[in-house]
From TrEMBL, chains A, B:
Biased amino acid composition, Low complexity: 360-369
Molecular-function GO term, any one: isomerase activity
PANTHER family for the chain: ALPHA-METHYLACYL-COA RACEMASE, SUCCINYL-COA--D-CITRAMALATE COA-TRANSFERASE
Ribosomal protein as UniProt keyword: no
EC number of this enzyme: 5.4.1.3
Annotated keywords: Isomerase
InterPro entries: CoA-transferase_III, CoA-Trfase_fam_III, CoA-Trfase_III_dom3_sf, CoA-Trfase_III_dom_1_sf
Disordered as annotated region, ranges: 360-386
Name of the protein in question: 2-methylfumaryl-CoA isomerase
Organism annotation: Brevibacterium marinum
Length: 386, 386
């Protein structure tokens, strides 16, 4: 049990030709799990090369953060010579991730003539050809309407569809690699960002809910749907999120606040069964009213400590600055992080993959390449191989 | 190329003992890609068995939506007999996904004595033992502070961390299966929900940004960071999201609105280079001011058509009801969906996995089991095998 084996994806070679969040995140996840990933960009960089945030010298922190652990090759992809080199690199690697239109030289039909067992995943905006990005897919999803206090649409700040699409991409590539090792055959995989949204909306029950009940959930502010949860302002000007899911949490809320007896009165008053999640959801406004003054009379630390002691789930809202500068979760104490020297950016903390493999560890956090920084080495190795 | 091969994960057998979104979604993703997944619950169901939304007869639409394509076995997991049967099922399958504390009989040490090459993935709230769920992890992430128009925290309505964790779980299991087929060895994998959040915050550049520049992005309403995008009210009381990322999009915005000349005036007026994403971001308020009246004078359909013709990314905000009832993306025209009969819920549309495999198709949408509905069959097959 104690010997260390190579990372789970050791031996897998992947070419990526893409930009923005989803496809780069998918290929980076493969690299973090041990694959050898080469990202090919046009000379001067793809459309995301200079994307904000940028460092003081203009280096894209965005690009560096989404391309950790890859090698970077730049080619003139409009020239026949550049297309030929890219084709050779794809044929040598055997696996391709792209969000470009897979036409002409980049079609599966053409590339698989150069590598018979090619695995190629193509990310599209939608299944029907309508252009789509995270922001427009999100508008269609229904979620912005129920975010916040009213039905005015509010976008999430998390690019949730791009993140999910990236993780579907790595799932698809690893699954196809598993299949290839048994069948000896490759295949083309397609994924649409809009389908990632639609599948998630369905997996979370929203589609069946509308189809069978004719209605859905409205905006709940910071409240939880179908259970009890709320955010509360504390006496020191902070705000805390409280989640009450199990009956143990519910008893804990009464215990932490000393308000058990008053909370018990809500059941008969509202005609609900407070021993169920649904009953507590129905009585949420009354629960809010009973406990809110307790939060207003305590600091966030006092409230967090009392709730934690009583086994209630809680978390203080914080800014990115507070997360990075003050939270032990986001520090080198957490084995998720390592310190790296990122060219053009500086010495920063970077995460590895959040998955920890006990038998075949996937490696520590590493930096991203500079744009095109591996071109000479990759092309030299390739020519040697011919 | 034309013969159809088994689904990518055909032959993989997985036991799941879990609840809520992340771990059930991870195991459901494995099932959707072809694995044989058995979810084991306590008799009467786990804590998520009755979670809202519920159908008119009280069946959990939530549970049904997150357990499609699995088999369901219920056991008395507090009894020695129940633990023994679960142990035998885990040993037979060889792969386990759980979000329970992996102690006692459920520890890797114990279970691997019954199946030497066991792959077991355990989802935790945090790496350091602090209890955490999507809502509390989200509060810590920094995102609620920059969601909406001001720094008052606004929760996302999407359980983004649970969804990402579910997709990391399936990545972890498939990667370990790939490794096991080559090494012959199993391993324990751990994943913390808080680390999924922290890794994502890092991958999107927020950590390096704070560390190197000392600051970060503030709330932008529905605007885009580092590029130009905004939502606009239209003359028919609707709202549309517009995203301008490339220079082609930028020229298209001027063309669609007929305001190119006025938009050009913004560059010298604001001293920015409007041919860059960053320049357009810096000039966003002036751009908003110039184009907003055009949106107010057009219906959402007129605006969408003009923008689409000019190659600008756009999408109308809609409710879940509108998505499900009116949007062709969310209909049986989209091959993502199939119609299923879900016991206790009714005839509804359900998604398959959004990944389409050309050579080894992963199968159509299927329904979820009823709680415990496969217990007899699974136990009978197991006893026969002994």
């Amino acid at each position: 049990m104690s010997e260390t084996r190579p990372a789970p994806l050791a031996g897998l070679k992947v070419i990526e030709i893409s930009a923005f969040v989803a496809a780069p995140l998918g290929a980076m996840t493969l690299a973090q799990l041990g694959a050898d990933v080469i990202r090919i960009d046009p000379i001067g960089g793809n459309i995301d090369a200079n994307r904000w945030p940028i460092s003081d010298d203009g280096t894209s922190i965005y690009w560096a953060s989404l391309n950790k652990g890859k090698r970077s090759v730049t080619l003139d992809l409009k020239s026949d010579e550049g297309k030929k080199i890219a084709t050779d690199l794809i044929a040598e690697a055997g696996t391709l991730v792209t969000n470009l239109p897979a036409r002409g030289w980049l079609s599966y039909e053409n590339l698989s003539q150069h590598r018979e067992d090619l695995v190629m995943l193509r990310l599209n905006g939608s299944h029907d050809g309508k252009p789509a990005v995270d922001y427009t897919v999100n508008a269609a999803s229904g979620f912005p309407i129920i975010t916040g206090d009213d039905e005015r649409p509010v976008n999430n700040a998390i690019p949730a569809w791009d993140v999910a699409a990236g993780l579907y991409i790595s799932n698809g590539i690893i699954a196809a690699e598993l299949e290839r090792r048994s069948s000896g055959k490759g295949q083309e995989i397609s994924l649409a960002l809009s389908d990632v949204m639609l599948a998630t909306v369905g997996n979370l029950g929203y589609i069946a809910e509308v189809q069978t009940t004719g209605k859905t959930r409205g905006p709940l502010g910071n409240g939880l749907y179908g259970a009890y949860g709320q955010s509360f302002a504390t006496s020191d000007g902070r705000e805390i999120m409280v989640a009450v899911i199990s009956n143990k949490h519910w008893r804990g809320l009464g215990k932490a606040t000393g308000l058990s007896e008053k909370l018990e009165m809500i059941g008969p008053m509202m005609d609900v069964d407070l021993s169920t999640e649904g009953g507590r959801f129905e009585a949420r406004e009354a629960i809010d009213a009973v406990v809110r003054p307790w939060f207003a009379a305590h600091t966030v630390d006092e409230a967090a400590a009392a709730l934690a002691d009583a086994g209630v789930l809680q978390g203080e809202f914080q800014t990115f600055e507070e997360l990075v500068n003050n939270d032990p979760w986001c520090s080198l104490e957490n084995p998720l992080f390592g310190e790296i020297d990122q060219p053009g950016v500086g010495r920063v903390m970077a995460p590895r993959a959040p998955l920890s493999f006990g038998g075949s560890p996937a490696g520590a956090a590493v930096s991203a390449p500079t744009l095109g920084g591996d071109t000479d080495e990759v092309l030299r190795t390739m020519q040697t191989g011919e």
